[in-house]
Amino acid sequence: MGRAGIDLFIEDGAYTTLSSAVVILVVLTLLFSSTAAIWSMSRAGDTQVAADSGALAGANVVSSYHTAATVVDASILSLGLAGFATIGAGLVAILIPGAELAAGDMVDTGIEIIKTRNKFAKSASKGLQKIETALPYLVAARATQAVSAQDTEGVTYTGTALAVPRTSESDFAALEGSEISTDAIKDTSKDLERAADELRKASEETAKAKERAWLADCGGSVPASVGSCSCMWERAGSLAKLSGEQNPHYASSVAWEPQVALDRAKAYYRQRLADEKPQGSSVETKAESAARKAFYTYASTEVNRAYVTEDGDEVASYIPLLPRNTDEVRATELYTDAVWPTSANDGKTYLHYGTSCPNYKKGTPGGLASVAAYDGQDKCNRCHFGVSSLGAVAAPSTSIENGFEYHFDRFKDALEDYVECRNKELELMRQTEDEADRAGNAFDEAIKALSGERPRIAPPGRNGVVAFAVSGAISSPDELNSSFNTAVRLGDHGAISAAVLAPDDATAQNNVLSRFFSTLEERSGGVAGVLDGVMDVWGRLLVGYGDIQGSADELMDEMIDGLGGNSGGLGSIASWLGDTVSASVAALGLEPCDLRLRKPVLTDTANVIKSPGSDITGLSKVQDKLRSIPLGVTDPKALCEALEYQVERTISGTVFTLAEIPLPGGGSIPLTVDVATLAGALGGGS
Question: Is the distance from CB of 122 to CB of 173 less than 8 angstroms?
Answer without folding.
Answer: no
